[in-house]
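Appendix B. One record, verbatim.
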Amino acid sequence: MKKLAIITALDRELAPLARDWTLATTTSQNRRVHIYESDAAIVAFAGIGVINARIAAAAAHAHANGNVAQFISAGLAGALGPELEVGDIVTPRLILDDVDGGQIEAASGEGTLVTASSIAGADAKRALGTRHAARAVDMEAYAVADVARIYGVPFVAVKAISDRLDFPMPPLSRFVSDTGQFQTAKFALYTAMRPWTIPTVLALGRHSALAAARLAAHLRAIIQQHAAGLYNSSNPEISTRS
């Protein structure tokens, strides 16, 4: 059976899904790629951003010996419209690159997701939503879509909203290393020295955990359908809430 190749940025985004899967680690382009594997799917991640997403997607394809049924860019995303709530699942039809304006259509979905080069706060999200008429923003989907296009493999994006349009996002981009790893210890020190930010940080943690749980449930349903031979990537009938 060809496997679903699910590409994310950080293990915490899909920990509820893959914690009991087999883990392998490889190195590509000076990046460590972690690959979780089940009978029907692979989850690969190398870090935040488009460079790491490309590396992880290519590594997943190689790990599966090219036997990939579909690439899925999965993870957390920020809302660009007021209608989206924390935990909502977004499956966009069009993926836009905010840097160079590139566009790639997914095999299925509705609306637009924009891939940005940094973690967007409230003001940046409003600007992105206006500029691209997009519903949500992430930092990896366009890169995964491009790798899928190169390999001639179908692609979809499945994102869970972790922060609403008006959420006062902490300056998280400051704590992303040059290799796309989130520097948790440095962020914890930053927060401890600014105790007035603690409620916001705790809220973001709760929201991210809720989004990750709903994302895992959504992907688990897709994987189960794929394993049973029932999953149609061009018309996936999966619940968007759990």
